[in-house]
Each structure stands twice: as C-alpha cells, then as structure tokens.
Design goal:
Blueprint (H helix, E strand, L loop, with lengths): L6 E2 H8 L1 H7 L5 H15 L4 H12 L9 H7 L4 H8 L7 H13 L6 H8 L2 H21 L4 H8 L21 H19 L1 H10 L7 H19 L3 H7 L7 E2 L4 H13 L8 H16 L3 H13 L9 H4 L7 H8 L1 H9 L6 H9 L20 H15 L11 H13 L5 H11 L16 H11 L4 H8 L3 H15 L4 H10 L8
Antiparallel strand pairs: 1-2
Helix pairs in contact: 3-4, 3-11, 3-13, 3-14, 4-10, 4-11, 9-10, 9-28, 10-11, 11-12, 11-13, 12-13, 16-17, 16-22, 16-24, 17-21, 17-22, 20-21, 21-22, 22-23, 22-24, 23-24, 25-27, 25-28, 26-27
Length: 517
C-alpha cells in the first residue's frame, strides 16, 4: 500500500472479525455470513442507508466483547467456555427445555465438587446481568474507540436484549431496542442455527422465536427468506462479498491510523485474563525501541510493532481454564496452546496490510534450537523480526504475574533472558537489544490522571481490573473494606463503567496498568 493511500476500514475490520468466530467456537466466517444476511434483510424491510450501515457494523462485530467475560466464565461456570459459548448462541435460555439441556451439558463437563458452585451461578440473575453487562460494555466501548458512531455503539450495547423484555443488561423491550441490535440478533441466530442443524430447521426456529427473543416482523421475513439467502451466501467469497456490500459512504482509514485500530484489538485480547492486561502494548513499546538496536530498517519497525500488538490474537482459541491454570499443563492442554500462533497468523494473513506482521506473529513462539512451536523452526529459518519479538515477549511476560508464578523484577527477567540466549533458545543479539532498552528509565507521567481520577483511585482501578474484591482491595491498600467500596464506586462513576472488564479496558486504553503509567 502506498504511503498516502487510504485503506477501506472494512478491509481491516472484516478479516479481524475471524477472531470473534474463534473465541465463540463458531465456524470460520460466521460473522461475515451474518453480516451479509443483515444487509439483505435490511434492504428487504426497507431500512435507510444509515440504518443499514449500523446493522452492517453491529452484526460484523456482534461478538467483539467476547473476551470481557472469559475470566468469570472459566472461574465460575465451565472449563471450556469456548465450547459452552458455541452452544449458548443457539439456546433460548428462557425456554425450560432448552435451558435444562444446556445445563445438563455444563454439569457433565465439570467435576462433581464444582457442580454446586456452577448451579448457584446458573441460577443467579445477578451473575447473568454482570456477565452480560461486561460483554456489552466492552463491545460499546470498542465501537466508540473505532469511531463507528452512536448507532453501532447502541446496537452493540443492546445486543443481548430481547423483544419480550427478558434480555440483558437493561431488560429493554420491543422497539426500545435499537434496530441494529434487532437485525443483528436475528441474522446471527439464523447463521449459527443453520451451521448446527441446517437451514430449514434454523428458519423454523427463527419463526418460533418471533415475539419472544426476536422482533416478530424481522423474524417472519427472515424465516420466509432465510434458506434462499443462506444458499446464495454459501456460494460467495465471504470477505470479498462483505467488503463490496458496505452500505452508505465508504469508511477509510489513513495508513498512520492503522495502529490505532490494531491497538484496540490488542487491548481486547489482553482483556481475556487479568494476568495479561497491557501485555501486548508493552511488548510493542519494547520491541519497537529494540528494533533500532537490533539493526532493523524503519519499515521493519512498523511490522514488528504491529506484530507485537497482535501476536497473541490467536489466544482466544484456547480456553481461559488453560491460560489461568495454576499448575502444569496436561499434554492435551499443551497441544491446544501450541496452535495459538498458527491461529494468530491465519487471522492476520487475511488482511493485506497486516500480512508482514502475520508472518512474525506466527513465528514468535519459535526458538533458535528448534524447541518452539508451531512449526518448530530453528536458526536462520526464523525471521529476524520474529526473533526480536520472541525475546521481547518472553521478557515482558516474565515481568508480569501469572496464575502459576509471581512476576520477576526487571533485573531477574533480564538475567533469565540472557540465560535463554546462552542456552541457544533465543537469538543472543535479540536478547542484547531488548536488555539494552529495558534498562532505560521510563518517562514520568506529566499529565493529570484521566477522567479526574486521583492517584489513590488509579491504584484502586488497577486492583478492580485484576478482579480484587472490596475486602481484598482494602487489605492490599491498608484501608477498610467500606472505604475501598467508596473508592470503587467513585472510580466507576468517573470513568463511566460499571464492570471489572470495563474498568480493565479503560485502564489499558489510558495506559494505567503499569505502576508508572
């Protein structure tokens, strides 16, 4: 792409939508398939161009908030939240028979000792509201950060509402729900049901849900025409079709703005577990500074930075129960982990502007001695940028806590990095470049905290984002639980969020995850 050429926004967002398919356990291209249905349906029912555009982006990014609840789902509900989600998207939980079938599956997937806790959370309306609000809050925040407009922001926040008022997070009903949300719900359900049970049964189910889960006017039209629309879509190149069908004015992004979009997705990936908040952004900062020390060209700096921001995008295909496991991984767990760089590369390679970064992301877990994954490359077969990314990723991860170990201080992390270089695991020149820049002092913050937060409230925000309770915050900061609760409510009020995930995303957006932020 020429330096001055603008990129169509959808050429960046549509390929990245594959990450939501992966995180939801849906077939590849399901977000694209649903989006094509939404536009066809919107045209049929006579929506305006502006409404079609809102439906288009709301449907494309319907599951963009899916990382918000991954931690809570894996801790309180199921071991494999990806398999659970693939069933949940086609289940009407207000219908006793469907809800009981899903509950039986969930109970069968957890040990006997964990079942009482699972039953309590399944029966808790407040837990359902918290999870739904987390997902919707993060999705709406993402729409705002991507400058998609108030219509898409409202559509994504209301994506879990129902026509009959039994949805979440606010119990909206009927036409009080944004048209973009109503269209996206119906079309996404049709696509998911068709993949699970076939087009004819899917259309019959959509008709049954008219007036309950779904807008009856939308549901009946979709039930009548859905099978034909699905057959038409199945013959298309989904990426090409979604790009060509964008309603209204064509949104574009300048080359210099690509990193802004990439950063939004990086934060969503790091949101998946409290242990990785800010990881990708920190890796990008260190890798870009080290690139000059390592002798990479200016163009390679950009590639390394983007690869660093998105190297972990494939992690959404691995359940949180594996990432947050406090002990050693099983052989099965390790096999799933070994695939995530492959998923990162596969997703990024579908976006032309990110193809160079895709190659590095796919190699960042390779090791110089061939002991890495997923291709088990070694030596010169690993691209220089990937060698630098590997060293940077290892260093930064060591300086953050994980569920199975505490964080190391920078000196300890640097010493271990040198040991790995000497042992032949990492490129010694890449290790030297990383260690040369991580010793540089950080720039002290010279601007006020965002949203009027005080220093104490920023400390509280970091703990909230990590999942601390009021009592735990009080113990950490040597204040009473009551005082901690007061601070938490003040933080939520100032930042305009109401969930742990929303607070965590705010902290990452504003660089507050680091003590020196």
């Amino acid at each position: 792409m020429a330096a001055s050429a603008r990129l169509r926004y959808v050429e960046l967002l549509a390929p990245l939508s594959f990450v939501t398919d992966l995180g939801m356990g849906e077939p590849d291209g399901q977000a694209l398939r649903s989006t094509l249905l939404a536009v066809r349906l919107g045209e049929t029912i006579g929506l305006s161009t502006a409404e079609l555009a809102d439906c288009y982006y709301t449907t494309l990014l319907r599951h963009i908030g899916c990382t918000a609840s991954a931690h809570e789902e894996s801790v309180f509900l199921v071991r494999d939240q990806i398999a659970f989600r693939s069933r949940l998207v086609t289940t009407d939980v207000t219908r006793r028979r469907e809800a009981m079938a899903l509950a039986r599956e969930m109970l069968g997937s957890v040990p006997l000792g964990a079942r009482p806790s699972l039953i309590r959370h399944l029966a808790s309306p407040s837990f359902d509201r918290i999870v739904s609000r987390s997902v919707c809050e993060v999705a709406a925040t993402t729409a705002r950060r991507l400058d998609l407009g108030s219509g898409v922001e409202a559509g994504l926040f209301q994506i879990s509402e129902r026509w009959d008022g039994k949805g979440q997070p606010d119990g909206l009903r009927q036409t009080g729900i944004a048209i973009a949300a109503r269209v996206a719900q119906a079309c996404a359900q049709l696509a998911s049901l068709a993949s699970a049970v076939g087009a004819q049964t899917a259309c019959a189910t959509i008709r049954e849900r008219a007036g309950g889960w779904l807008d009856p006017d939308i549901a009946h039209v979709l039930a009548d025409r859905g099978a034909a629309l699905l057959a038409e879509i199945d013959d298309l190149d989904l990426l090409e079709a979604v790009t060509s069908i964008e309603p209204g004015f064509v949104r574009t992004v300048a080359p210099t703005d690509v990193d802004r979009v990439v950063r939004v997705f990086a934060d969503l990936i790091d949101l998946r577990t409290p242990w990785t908040h800010g990881h990708s952004t920190e890796v990008a900062v260190i890798a870009e500074r080290a690139a000059a020390e390592y002798g990479l060209s200016v163009d390679e700096h950009t590639t390394v930075r983007r690869a660093a921001l998105l190297h972990d995008i494939g992690r959404v295909g691995v359940p949180n129960s594996i990432w947050e496991k406090p002990g050693p991984l099983s052989a099965t767990d390790r096999e799933r982990v070994r695939l995530y760089p492959y998923h990162s590369e596969r997703i990024l390679s579908r976006c032309p502007v990110l193809v160079p970064a895709a190659r590095l992301a796919g190699m960042h877990r390779e090791r110089q001695d061939g002991s890495g994954y997923h291709r088990q490359l070694s030596g010169a077969a690993i691209l220089p940028g990937a060698r630098l990314l590997a060293a940077t990723d290892v260093y930064q991860a060591m300086t953050q806590s994980r569920s199975y170990r505490p964080a190391r201080d920078p000196e300890q992390a640097a010493a271990e990095l040198h040991r790995m270089g000497s042992a032949g695991h990492l490129d010694v020149d890449a290790v030297a470049a990383v260690c040369a820049v991580v010793g540089m002092p950080r720039t002290s913050r010279s601007v006020p905290w965002p949203s009027g937060l005080t220093h104490r409230e920023v400390e509280v925000l970091r703990l909230v984002a990590h999942g601390f309770t009021n009592r735990a915050i009080g113990a950490e900061l040597h204040i009473s639980a009551r005082t901690a609760e007061h601070h938490v409510q003040s933080v939520y009020g100032k930042i305009g969020r109401s969930t742990r995930a929303g607070a965590a995303l705010f902290a990452m957006e504003h660089g507050l995850y680091h003590p020196d932020g």
